[in-house]
């Protein structure tokens, strides 16, 4: 099909996104079509008269053939138009989402950095003394952390560190009673960010640690590591300078493919901390069955997952030329 | 004469067999396996006995509101005076029902796709694997969210949705297993004696991939429990069923006054999921061709002998 070389690799990867994105569009569109009741029922309510309903149907183009509706659905999406909220006074869904996105991205970004750095460091520490006491206790801890629902861990954190100890605020992103400016405002947000970011990072930490550990252990038995040791290099330096850069590749892949899980985790954890991000929007939308908002959120998440996977692959191909020939 | 040779191959020649004696010995010897088996057995028993241990409507008031744990209410009562222990037992039953139903559905679909894909190869394989990739790309939690939001909340909706979407991991594992199995002599022998493809699939390949499939299904079950809990937590659970996620959701406004409303339902989820994960691990280790004893030499339990491709095995929602 596409030729070899860098361009061929990029083209192949770009093309492979097409079926996934089409599937996402078709499935979401099918749900809108198949779900009981349509937008007119939601907008006009039960008591609307037929003439109004027909007018609305024509206005919303719901009387058009299905393929044409699908076409306009795709065109609207491509223009970033996700429709208007049923509930929040006809506000465009895109505005609602863009309004909340920064808070969620702040939370996710912080958690991503914390879990990646922490996981790699922990993995390196274990790889220094594998199969030891540290290794055993970390792997037991990661078994437990795999079984922990994020939202429950969040509640426990609130109970322990916010309510009992009083170290951190219980709710929100800023202190409503104070009007901070400048640096103090940043510090205020940071103080509110600590608990949710730590809880979200904990869910990812176990996985990153495991991947880093496995990667480092595999690299440690390679010959270049042995020669580094043979020339008298200290073990710590051998691991950090020689083995780690190579072991980081799988870590980067895993982190890249975890975006969807991170989103899901963030959304649920936000609701515990009252963090004003997409999670809180999702909570209100799901309780009021605000379909356009739900749909917009799901589309945003699925498409960014596809995009993140694509980017991960491309970056991987850039770092490691061997991947391109596959 | 030909009939005789068409019997399943002697299982001794196969990698993936679980001699029950070895499995049992492994369970008793390994503390984590023993713990996992006990937890799983305990949660299954308790969920089966929920109606006997906590008879009556778990959503009806049983005593004064917000009582801390005591002899008569070991897990305390909630804001409406409902017995939390009873609610937890019924919630556990809901979780287990969903896990078992989804597990059974994914087992059937995953086995079918994996076996056909691995055995047939070529174009069929290509198409089926593309489809599984799509299922991997859409985060299950958000898909479930959409379905519940559009079609209404209900345990039946959830089971159908998760059952039809949770098989991708199993399909890939079974496919990989089938790819190596189909090159074995006993498959050639069966084929040369005129056994049909269907017969080879059902009599020769299926029994051999089944043990591995069970491991993956345990993981699917734990994943499903967490997804259901997360959905109920954001208020998209079945309103007519008590669920552990709902109990934790309900505890949120009362965190400052009634820690027990959150702690006990959450612990129950952890115990159920841990039981499934550890049991999956233990079957996985017993299946290891190097034998469970190879694992025991002071190695950490996180080594995976089943080559599932680490990231995908992870539970989807925490």
Q: What separation lies between the terminal Cα atoms of chain A? A: 13 Å
Order of helices and strands of chain B: HHHHHHHHHHHHHHH
Question: In this structure, how is the largest beta sheet of chain A organized?
Answer: none
Contiguous low-pLDDT stretches of chain A (5 residues minimum) are none
Mean pLDDT of chain B: 79
How many H/I helical runs of chain A? Answer: 13
Going by helix content, strand content and strand pairing, the class of chain A is mainly alpha
List the helices and strands and how they pair.
The complex is a heterodimer of chains A (326) and B (318).
Chain A: H1 5-34, H2 39-44, H3 50-59, H4 66-78, H5 93-128, H6 133-147, H7 150-164, H8 183-220, H9 223-230, H10 235-257, H11 259-273, H12 278-287, H13 291-319
Helix pairs in contact in A: 1-13, 5-8, 5-10, 5-11, 5-13, 6-8, 7-8, 7-11, 8-10, 8-11, 9-10, 10-13, 11-12, 12-13
Chain B: H1 2-5, H2 20-29, H3 31-48, H4 50-53, H5 84-120, H6 122-137, H7 140-151, H8 155-165, H9 168-181, H10 185-192, H11 197-233, H12 244-251, H13 260-287, H14 292-296, H15 310-313
Helix pairs in contact in B: 2-3, 3-5, 3-13, 5-6, 5-8, 5-9, 5-11, 5-13, 6-9, 7-8, 9-11, 10-11, 11-12, 11-13, 12-13
Question: Can you walk me through this structure?
Answer:
The complex is a heterodimer of chains A (326) and B (318). By secondary structure, chain A is mostly helical. Chain A has 13 helices and no strands. In chain A, helix 5 crosses helix 11, helix 8 runs antiparallel to helix 11 and helix 12 runs antiparallel to helix 13. The longest helix of chain A has 38 residues. With 318 residues, chain B is mainly alpha-helical. In chain B, 68% of the residues lie in helices and 0% in strands. Chain B has 15 helices and no strands. Chain B is elongated and about 75 Å long. At the A-B interface, helix 1, helix 6, helix 7, helix 8 and helix 10 of A face helix 6, helix 7, helix 11, helix 12 and helix 13 of B.
């Amino acid at each position: 099909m596409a030729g070899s070389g860098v361009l061929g690799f990029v083209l192949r990867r770009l093309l492979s996104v097409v079926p996934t994105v089409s599937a996402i569009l078709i499935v979401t569109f099918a749900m809108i079509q198949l779900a009981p009741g349509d937008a007119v029922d939601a907008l006009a309510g039960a008591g609307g008269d037929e003439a109004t309903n027909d007018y609305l149907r024509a206005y919303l183009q719901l009387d058009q053939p299905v393929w044409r509706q699908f076409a306009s659905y795709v065109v609207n999406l491509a223009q970033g138009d996700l429709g208007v909220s049923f509930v929040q006074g006809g506000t465009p869904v895109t505005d609602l989402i863009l309004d909340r996105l920064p808070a969620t991205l702040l939370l996710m970004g912080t958690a991503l950095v914390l879990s990646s750095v922490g996981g790699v460091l922990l993995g390196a520490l274990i790889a220094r003394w594998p199969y030891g006491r540290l290794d055993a206790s970390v792997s037991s801890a990661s078994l437990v952390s795999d079984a922990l629902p994020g939202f429950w861990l969040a509640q426990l954190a609130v109970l322990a560190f916010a309510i009992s100890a009083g170290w951190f605020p219980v709710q929100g992103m800023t202190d409503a009673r104070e009007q901070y400016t400048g640096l103090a405002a940043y510090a205020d947000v940071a103080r509110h960010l600590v608990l949710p970011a730590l809880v979200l990072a904990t869910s990812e930490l176990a996985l990153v640690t495991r991947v880093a550990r496995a990667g480092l252990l595999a690299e440690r038995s390679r010959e270049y590591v042995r020669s580094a040791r043979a020339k008298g290099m200290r073990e710590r330096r051998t691991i950090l300078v020689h083995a780690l850069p190579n072991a980081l590749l799988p870590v980067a892949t895993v982190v890249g493919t975890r975006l969807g899980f991170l989103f899901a985790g963030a959304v649920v954890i936000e609701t515990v901390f009252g963090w004003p991000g997409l999670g809180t929007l999702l909570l209100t939308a799901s309780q009021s069955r605000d379909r356009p908002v739900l749909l917009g959120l799901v589309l945003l998440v699925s498409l960014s997952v596809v995009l993140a996977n694509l980017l991960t692959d491309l970056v991987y191909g850039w770092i490691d030329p061997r991947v391109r020939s596959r | 004469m030909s009939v005789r040779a068409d019997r399943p191959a002697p299982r001794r020649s196969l990698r993936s067999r679980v001699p029950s004696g070895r499995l049992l010995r492994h369970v008793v010897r390994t503390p984590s396996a023993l713990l996992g088996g006990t937890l799983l057995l305990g949660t299954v028993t308790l969920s089966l006995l929920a109606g006997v241990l906590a008879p009556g409507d778990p959503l009806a008031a049983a005593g004064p509101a917000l009582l801390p744990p005591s002899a008569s209410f070991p897990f305390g009562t909630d804001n409406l005076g409902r017995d939390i222990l009873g609610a937890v037992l019924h919630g556990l039953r809901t979780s287990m029902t969903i896990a078992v139903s989804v597990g059974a559905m994914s087992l059937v679909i995953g086995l079918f796709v994996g076996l056909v894909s691995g055995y047939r190869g070529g174009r069929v394989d290509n198409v089926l694997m593309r489809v599984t990739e799509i299922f991997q790309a859409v985060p299950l939690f958000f898909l479930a969210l959409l379905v519940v939001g559009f079609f209404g909340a209900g345990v039946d909706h959830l089971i159908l949705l998760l059952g039809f979407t949770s098989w991708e991991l199993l399909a890939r594992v079974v496919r990989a297993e089938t790819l190596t199995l189909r090159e074995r002599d006993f498959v050639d022998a069966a084929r040369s004696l005129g056994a049909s493809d269907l017969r080879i699939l059902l009599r020769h390949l299926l029994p051999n991939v089944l043990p591995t499939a069970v491991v993956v299904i345990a993981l699917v079950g734990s994943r499903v429990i967490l997804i259901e809990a997360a959905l109920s937590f954001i208020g998209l659970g079945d309103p007519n069923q008590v669920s552990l996620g709902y109990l934790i959701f309900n505890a949120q406004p009362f965190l400052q006054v009634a820690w027990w409303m959150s702690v006990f339902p959450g612990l129950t989820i952890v115990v159920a999921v841990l039981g499934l994960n550890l049991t999956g691990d233990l079957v996985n280790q017993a299946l290891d061709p190097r034998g469970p004893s190879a694992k025991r030499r002071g190695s950490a339990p996180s080594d995976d002998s089943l080559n599932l491709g680490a990231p995908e095995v992870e539970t989807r929602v925490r």
